[in-house]
Each structure stands twice: as structure tokens, then as C-alpha cells.
Sequence to fold (1157 residues):
Amino acid sequence: MYLSLKWLREFTPYDGSVERLAERLTMLGLEVEEITRPFVHLQNIVVGRVVETRQHPGADRLSLCRVDAGQGELLPIVCGAPNVAPDQFVAVALPGTALPDGKRITRAKIRGESSRGMICSEVELGLGEENDGIMVLDGPLVPGQDMLTVMDLDDWVLNISITPNRGDCLSMVGLAREVAVEFNLPMTLPDTRVIQDGPSCADALSITIDDPDLCPLYQAGIIRGIAVAPSPPWLRHRLLTIGQRPINNVVDVTNYILMEWGQPLHAFDRGLLSGNSIRVARAREEQSLVTLDGRTRRLLPADLLIWDAEKPVALAGVMGGANSEVTQTTTDILLECAVFNPISIRKTSRRLSLTSEASFRFERGVDQPGSRQAMNRALALIRQTAGGTVMQGIAAHEPHPWQPPRLVFRPARAKKILGVDLQPEFCRQKLAALGCAVDVQDAQAWRVQPPGFRPDLEREADLIEEVGRCHGLDRIPATLPRTARSLDWLHSLAPDTAFRKTVKHWARGIGLTEAINYSFVSSQDLALMGLDRIPAIGLRNPLSEDQNVLRPMLAPGLLQSVRHNMTQGNTTLRLFETSVIFQPDPDSETGALEPSRLGLALTGNRHPEGWPWPMEFVDFADIKGCIDHLLRHLHLPHAAYAPLDEHPICLPCAGITLGGEMAGWLGRVKSEIADHCHVRRDLFLAELDLTLVQRWHAQSRLEFKALPKFPPVRRDMTLIAPPDLALCKILEAIQAEAVDLLQEILLIDRFVPLDKPEARLTLRLTYRHQDRSLTNEEVDKTHQKLSQRLASLLPVRFS
Amino acid sequence: MPASGSDPSGQSARDLTHHLEGLVPELETVLAATASDQELEAVRVQFLGRKGRLSGIMSELPKLAPDQRPLVGQIANQIKSRLQALVDQRLSRLKQDKELKVLTYFDPSLPGLTAWQGSLHPITLVTEEICAAFGSLGFELVEGPELETDFHNFEALNLPPDHPARDMQDTFYITENTLLRTHTSPLQVRTMLRKRPPLAAIAPGKVYRRDSDLTHTPMFHQIEGFLVDTDVSMTDLRGTLTAFVHKIFEPKTVVRFRPSFFPFTEPSAEVDISCMLCGGSGQSAGAPCRVCKQTGWLEILGCGMIDPAVFTAVGYDAELYTGFAFGLGVERVAMLKYGIGDLRMFFENDVRFVSQFA
Ligand SMILES: [Zn+2]
Fold:
């Protein structure tokens, strides 16, 4: 909302600085975002008197003028406007002046004739849109005076952000009331008397409202014999000041009153309305209407329309119809001043994506009892600017007159909420200044009736907020509350967040970098990666097709991060992300489950670059090592890893099982996907179901094991195995032998010869007896026996 | 140098003593030429070993007259100690030389085998810092789903359908009735439905709004805090937030409360803090401050006293209980705290960005 300081001063005599006004308004909850001086450029434009004009010798359409611009000499100025004539008072831009469109005036030679300035048109001065030649001022004026002063346009404009509860402040009058309350100034409302010289309006028009809930009040006035024309300068300039485009005297007045009172008005061309009745009724099935902006609007029965005797003529409270628009030829108008149901207006305006100054105000509630004054003021102004005769009275139908809510205000309650002991007289005075009727007979519980322009004051809490706001929220002192807690808080209410925190800190500890990706991904990307078989939740109104489905796994987001980093030249990545993912679940209250996941992405160098680290690249062992390290960190048993035959993203890929449950996967990203991410080295991904890991972790107990008393005996064995024999098969076979003395098996070397399809695995077996020292002989015997068993059970031989 | 091979039968006590004493200068000479532990050990064996020179001389001892033996034996023991001392001396000298040699190649400025430095995302760092600040004030962590019902996200928070205030939070819908939460405030509702007062809780998490431009991302992070008890007033809210601001920023930061509007609080306020770059003057290094755009203030969070309608929605007695709530944007705090200028960097995960927050 734009507030003009000049306009404001018509209602309340604020004479302080604009900065102080802005500061106080902001601290009242009317946040001033910007202060501008819209016509300040006129300061550099001066009044000039055209002393003589003659034909330019070299151009038919140019005149050579000599202008007294108060510069001590007459200036030669070349002018192209046909309407320039001697003795005119005009606006002159002298050399060095910048015009609003950025053009800078310089001394120039135009077709050989020197020109020392420019005689300006309204367009060039930012004062109008129509170019009818130069602007001719009403004289007499003193040449050399600045135009800002001469035209009385030195105004400040405050751009104020209005919260949705303060529809009343979407008007000069509403903002003036706030200023008056804040600075204890008197408030004078505009004159709303209107000369009504025509026959009775009520006799000439009947109003019916089919659905009173959607339209509690409809009023109409009629003016006959008007002349539609451009508005007078003061009106045009006012509208320009607050960023409104002048159109014609009738439309400009309705816009002016909307800005002044916050009451939307609509003028119909009476001659284009059929019959003598106005009906407020819903749209019919399959109805459409061409609105003022020329667009055809398809309507639903929920939309409210204004009908004449035959047809719809306006989309109620949102926009007028093109079929009854006021034009140059209009002579009679019907002026509508109504109140519509905020919800109904909002639904229509949102569905059609059509927001107007009117709908914006109706949605926030307008002043029903005050609307008549706005109407009268508009009728008087139209009569003043467009002539005509105003018909007696108005035609009106008010099925639901406004009822002020009867509220209670307890000073003690205000103290309890605000923590400040406000003087009762202060509260009474401020509530009254805000327009409330205050009855303090019961000192403990006042009776308060808010005014019609404050529909947001519905409860005691709203009144408490008002007195707090007037006192100044910033003046409330600071204390610390006691935070009493009950025992049932001891069970964490955020176990998932806490667990993810543990994992995040583990990840940082092992040198991973955290990524946070958007929760939505593109369904098309999922399909490209073959992930569209995983059930995912789509957004009904995505911002774009790139973000139209909630991620069913972390991998797509991590791949996106990889891709971004690669394009930035970051070729070594050690990324992790912990977040929830989304799975459809019809049994859930929200329709979804949100399990936590951990995602890892590794590519590039295995070690930080440079001596003394060797130059190596990450491989499967690195990413698997991360998972094993995490499980160890969380005191969980080893996970089992087995090849997954088919995985959309990775090849090869391994599934991770934890206690028989599928807990995730890891692997090398397929080349076509890696290529798409511009990765040059192998890229490894892993994704772990943290919710499952968290459950296992919650069950795990740390338990001390007594230290062994007797020394171990170690024996190595080197097996030659076919390449497709998994290590876990060998380990399982050894464990299945249940050798009592065997405490630990460790793979200490693996060698794959280039020329033979085999792997040489060296295992170190640790033997120990709990209660005595072992002899070499008995260990050798056991070890030998075990080797022979393995050779008979597995396709292995020993070197 | 006495020849050990001379006729032993002619040995007298004097000769033996002479031989013994002769070992000392001899060993000194040999030792001076040793350069390594191995050489030294060889010399030691040569002189002091079981079959060494000393033992060789000592083996002549029985040939002496019995009355001479104790004296010579005593001298022999003294010589043995001296020889041993000489060897030990040389040993420690060699050790010292070796240590000095290590020093020659010692360059502590050479790089170490430094493991990878991991880093947490600045959002995580700031979230944890804020949660810890409120934790120290007695607020407990709570959590809830990101996909929410209209009831928890809007209706119970005094935002009925078709209320214009819903415009403030443009929403991603999943179905008619479920949506991506637009703020962390549904955690107020969920927590109050589960627990009775007194309660003080803090809820961090992702939130979503259908908005994307230079200063908005469709997903961002919020932290919601709320406290409900029988006697909570706006002064408590102000004190709590002042304490928070002083913990997270500088203790001299000024906190300003400005009236505002949120459907779920009444009164509502925006909290501004004095600009950390210009100290609230609006001017920095003689030019208009770019951080606060000359206002001297930075908007940091929204807050207010919990609206009685919210208490009614969760079944609390709105006459008995009062409380406050606040919500702050984590990205905003991180940007101010670390001087990050571009909001979109948070979700690009460029490692050159994230790793600055190691
Ligand atoms: Zn600043």
C-alpha cells in the first residue's frame, strides 16, 4: 500500500518528518519498506515563457523558440510540438537535466540551429500518458521557478506492507487513523455531502440479492448526463503519486475512493445495462463472462455475479464485465458500492488467478457501515469532475446489517499476557481512539464494541494486542521464564533427529562432507534411472516438472550434487546426506511414511592430495569401509553383503543385510548414469536405511568382556580359490566347523595372479584356550585338520 | 704391547697387572674407531667377551702364587669395570651421534598424513547451535513429519480454509488434505496434543513453500520454539529471544520487537536485531550498509503469544494457560552469521562451499 504524505495530511495534521512517520508506522506493525519522492525530478524543470516562435529554416515541423526561463537571457530552443505558441507558460528542461525516462538534455544543434533546452510534454515529465504536444501551464507564472513547487507535487510516498488482518489500512483514511492515534492528533474525515438533484434512484432501480450470505449489502447510485473525459490534473497526479494509471474521470474517481476509503466501487455504463434491476446471484452452470481485461472467464456456480435484467455484467467484487464498461460515449452511469463475502471472493479470485485492488480488499473485509459515506463521496466527485445530475438517494438492499461484536476487555488479562501493567486510562483512551465504543462501568471487565472498519477485532485477545501495540511491543521488558518440566519428558520426543545427529557427526569424523538436497526430484529423472517402479508421492501443484515428486530415495539428489560439483571442477567427492525419504502409506495419518536414510557418494582420490599420501582412487572397498565403520561405531554386528543381480543405479551392486533384514545397498554407479554426472573416475554410491539401523542400535547393549588370561597362537593359511568363491563362504565354512579354540579369522592378504583365474587368500587364524596355554603341537593339529576339512568342503587348494 | 703368547710359566703378578692395565689404553684406541653399534659390539666381545682379552689374562691367574692371587684378582675386577665403562661411554656416544644424524633430516614443516577433514552443512551447524542455545534454557527437542495434514499445518493454528493469511504461505499440496508443511508450527499442535503443560520445546526441520526466486527456495529450514505454562507473558518471550540472540550473535546485539501478524499468535511480533555489520548505524565504511540496506536492523524471526484458538484446538484451557511461540529461518541466521550472500548455495552442495564449515 502506498501512502502519500500530502493525502494523509488532508485527514490528520501530521507535521513531523517523513522518516519519523515511517519509523512510528513500522513500530505500529505497518512496516514501511521504502520511502520515495515520486515527482522529485520536477525540481530540475523550470517554468519558461515562450517569447517568440518562428519556423525552423531547415525543417517544416520544427519551431525555433526564444524562451525566458529565468536565466537572465532568452534561450533559443528548438521545439517539435505543433501547439507551441508565444506567451505560453511551459516546462523547460535546461541542459544537464535528466528526465524520468533517463534522457539527459544537452546543448545541441538541431538541423543547424542551436537549442539550449527542451520544452517538455506531460509524458516527458512523467505526468501523463497521452502525448498532445507540450504541456501548457496556466499562467501567469514566474519564469525560472521549479516545477515541483509550481505544480504543488512535492510529495513523499511510503510503501507499506500491510498484514492480512489489517484490511482497514489498505486506505489513506485507515492509515491516517493509525497516525492520529499514534501521535495523538485529531482525525478529520473527508466531506461526504453530495448534491442530489435528480429524481429518486430507488424508484428507478430494484435490487435483489439471491444469496445474502455472499452479499450482505448492495447499494447503487445513478448519475445522468455526464461527460467522460480525462480527469483534472489534481486527480491524475494523485493517482500517479501512488502508482495508479489514470484512465478517465469516472474510473479515476472510483479508484481514488478505493484508495482513500478502502471501499471498492464499480461504475457501469447505465446505457448498456438492460432493464431497471440489479440482481446479485451465482453463476449458472457453464457460464462465462468477458471481464474488463478482455479475457473470457469460465465460471462455476460458486462464483458470484452481478446481473442486469438479462445478463451477467460483473464478476462480483473481482472485476467488471466488458459488456457494461464505461467508455468515452457513456452518459449515464450506475455506481455500485457493495460488500461481499471475503471467502467467496477469495475462492473465485484464486481459482481464476485474478486479483484486483477490489478483490484484495473484499478478501480482507471492508467497512460495511462506512461504505455509504464512500459512495456519497464518489458520487460528489464524479459530479464535480464529469458533471451530470445525481439521482436522489440510492437504491440499496442490506439483508445482513453489520452487527458490532460485543467484547470484554479485562485489564488484568492484558497484564497477564503482556507482562506490563498498563494504566487503565491509557487503554481506554487508545481503544476509543481506534474507534471502539468502550464502557468501563465494570472496572474488571470492560464492554467494548469495535468499529465497522475493524472486522479483525473479534476477541479479547485482539483488544489486548491493540493496547500492546499502542504501548509499543518494543517497550516490553525482558525476563526469563521458569521452564518447568514433567518427568515424561525424559523419553526423547525426537529420537530420529537425535540419531541422525549421531550419524552426521560420525560422518564428519571420518572425513565426509554433508550435502542437503531438495526433498523433491523430477519424476522424469526417476524414470530415466529406472526408479519409477519405486512407489513415490507426487505433488499436486509442483513449481516445475523438475521438482514434481517427493524423493523415494536419496540417490537421485546425491547424483545431482555430484553433477553440480563435477561441473565446478570438484572431481574428488566424499559426500553424505542424512534425511527422511517419502513412501506412500495409506494407513498413515499423512498418507506417508518418512523413514530416515543415509546416502554416501565417493569418487576421485582415495587420500588427500600430495605427499606423503600415495596417489590412489577410491573403489568399492572405500565405500564398504564407510558402512562397516558406521556399524562398528554404533556397536552393531557385522552386516552381510551379497551381490544384487539387478539394480537401477549400480553395477556391480551389493545388498546390505543386517540381522537378516535388508538394510541398504552399495555399488559402483553404472557408466551411463556416471557419464550423465560428468564423473571421470568411478563413482560409488551407498544408501542405508537409518530407521532400521536405529532400531538395531536401540536394541544393542554395550557389555564388557573379560580380557583373556592366556596368550594366543596364530597360524596363517593361504588358500587358492576360484574367483567366484566369496570370502564369506570360506569364513562360514570355517565357522561351521565350530573349532572351540579358534577365536578370530582375519584376511591378511589377497593376491590375484594375472595369468590364472584364481585368488590367493591368506587368512590369519588366532587360537586361544580360556584356561591354559596352548602347545604348538595341539594348535598345529587343529589347524591342519581344519585345512583338510576346507579342502574337502570347498573348491580350494592350499599353496 | 705385551704379547699374550709369551711363555705363561714365567708370569709374575707384576706382569699380569701390567697386561691388565695395558688393556685400557688399547681399548680406548680401538673404541675411538668404532662407528656403529655392530662394530662396538664386536670390540666389546673382543675385550670383555667370554673368550676375550680380559678373560684370556684372567685365565693366567691360577698360575700365580696363592698369596698374590687376591690382589691381582682385585685389580682385574677394577680393570673390567673400567673397560665396561669405556664401552658404555662409547655406546651412549654412538647413540647420541645417531640422534644427531636424525635431526639433520628432521623437517617438521613437511606435511603430515592428515586424514580427510569432514564437514557438516552450515544449516546443520547453525541448527545445532540454536538448539543447544535453547536447550540450555530448558527447551526439549521435538520432531514430526514433513508431510502434514491440513489440520496440523493450518486449521489447528487458527488458519481456516480460505483465510487470506494462507497467502503468506503458498503451499505444496499432495492431496486435498495433505501437504508439505509450510512451517514447523504443526509441531506446536502435535506436541500439545501429546503432552500437558508445562512444556517448553524446540522443533527444527525442513519446511516447504511454493516460491522460488533469488531470495526464496522451495525448501528451507525452520526452528520452532514454544513454551506453555500457567503464567507466561510477553516479557518471558522477549527475555528468551534476547538470551538466544546474545548466545548466537554478539552479547551487545540489540533486539527489537515490532508488531506483526500471524494467525496462531496474538499479539504477534517480528523480531529485528541490530545489524552486525554496521552496528545499527546503517552506514558501513562510509557507504550505505549492504547487509541491512541502511535500516540498521535485520529481521530475524517471528513470534508471539500463542493464540487462544490454538489452545482450544488442542484441548487446553485457554483461560488457565498462556504461552509463547516463535519460528526462525535457519538459512537466514546462517547467512547473517557466516556472511553468506546467496541463498541458493545452500542446496547446490558445492564442496568448496560446504567444506568451509568443517
Ligand atoms: Zn547494517
Q: What stands out?
A: The pocket of zinc ion is lined by residues B 275, 277-278, 282, 284, 289, 291-292, 296 (CB under 6 Å). Chain B touches chain A through 96 residues (CB under 8 Å). Residues 1-9 of chain B have pLDDT under 50 and may be disordered.
